[in-house]
């Protein structure tokens, strides 16, 4: 609920979590040390799988310090140039 996952993404996440749980002969479950409750541990596993999926899809991007100092417009321009792959003319129009 926290990440407002759409139905298609939820199906994909379900598949990836099931794969993660049974891969390496249930290695994720064998790593459970009992320092927390099993539901808490599994919630963390599912969250990490979701975050890994998001990073794999869109990459991990942070604005440069210079763009952050210049404000939201500079951050938006930098995102368009680096992440979206727009040319400077396209980015400035946007």
Helix fraction, binned, reads over 70%
Radius of gyration: 19 Å
Order of helices and strands: HHHHH
Low-confidence stretches: none
What is the typical, i.e. mean, pLDDT?
Answer: 92
Distance between the termini: 32 Å
Instruction: Report the β-strand fraction as a percent range.
Output: under 5%
Oligomer: single chain
Major sheet: size, sense and barrel closure? none
Instruction: Indicate the structural class.
Output: mainly alpha
Count up the helices: 5
- Overall strand count: 0
Shape: elongated
What is the topological layout?
Layout: H1 7-30, H2 38-58, H3 65-70, H4 72-82, H5 88-93
Would you write up a description of this structure?
It contains five helices and no strands. It is 72% helix and 0% strand. Helix 1 (7-30) crosses helix 2. The chain starts with 6 loop residues before the first helix and ends with a helix. The protein has 94 residues and is mainly α. The model has no long low-confidence stretch (mean pLDDT 92). It has helices at 7-30, 38-58, 65-70, 72-82, 88-93.
């Amino acid at each position: 609920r926290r990440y407002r996952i759409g139905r298609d993404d939820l199906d994909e996440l379900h598949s990836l979590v099931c794969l993660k749980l049974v891969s390496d002969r249930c290695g994720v479950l064998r790593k459970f040390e009992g320092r927390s409750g099993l539901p808490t541990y599994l919630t963390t596993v599912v969250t990490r799988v979701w975050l890994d999926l998001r990073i794999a899809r869109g990459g991990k991007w942070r604005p440069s310090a210079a763009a952050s100092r210049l404000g939201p417009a500079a951050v938006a321009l930098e995102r368009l140039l680096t992440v979206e792959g727009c040319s400077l003319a396209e980015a400035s129009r946007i």
